[in-house]
Amino acid sequence: MNKEFEDYLLVRVQENDDSRTKDAMAYSLMNGGKRVRPMLLFSVLEGYGMDAHVGYPCACAIEMIHTYSLVHDDLPAMDNDDLRRGKPSCHKAYDEATAILAGDGLLTKAFEVVLDSECSAKQKVALVKALSWYAGIDGMIYGQTLDLQAENDTNPTFALLQEIDHYKTSKLLTLPLVCGCILANKFDDIDHFRKIGLVLGLEFQMQDDILDVVGSEEVVGKSLSDEDNHKVTAVSLLGLEGAKDMVKSYDETIRKSLDKVSCDVTSLTKVLDTLLKRTY
Predict the structure, then answer these.
(1) For residue 44, how far is the Cα from the chain centroid?
(2) Which DSSP category does 170 fall into?
(3) At what angle are helices 190-214 and 158-165 packed, to 10 degrees?
(4) Contact 66, 37 (CB under 8 A)
(5) Distance CA 181, CA 120 (A)
(6) What is the pTM of this model?
(7) CATH number of the domain that 121 lies in?
(8) What is the pLDDT of residues 41-61, one digit of tens each?
């Protein structure tokens, strides 16, 4: 991700009154990360012939929401992970209470930041609604709920896994695609990008499951705790080779779906290529 956007993230997360919570927010937001969601948003805007700077507030907001979800995911009551992005998790670097507040702060700050987007009032309302819906109780949070419930499932199925990944991962990968359409005022393309985002999330999470088996904590940058936490994963259900074959199938579906959107997908395709070949 370009330095200019990283600088923008840092300014937005540090612009409030000094506090331990603000420090923890900045620690988590600026602690590396692939910035996948901003890249997706910027590539959609580029496809519509727009400057990436238009998407900075929205991309920042999405990244804040994503980071909050990771901070809370790592808590002892959730996945109890001590490592995130190659460094101590927020609750290990600070403390559990501060990590909870840091997650809360990032989530609420996101809605302030997205309203700084340079677009019409109608578009701003659509952006706020999209952030709320895709990250909320019918979106990512529902996926986290299903994920926790599945830890005690003695007979997990691939259908259950897909439902978890649909909500927990696909929703926040669909969000930047949808927001790109909103910022470009291309609402007719939203349904097409929703379908692409769904499959992209399934592919992305399945790659994570594979990396959890074949990777190392040093390279992947987080605790490889799925097996210890009795998580339902693609590898546990399909086997390693079966999961790899499914990733290829998902990717083919995404590429075919790109033909239906009205923007130039050259930049988006490059991002997808990078995600497909990732090792962390």
Answers:
(1) 16
(2) I
(3) 120
(4) yes
(5) 13
(6) 0.92
(7) 1.10.600.10
(8) 999 999 999 999 999 999 999
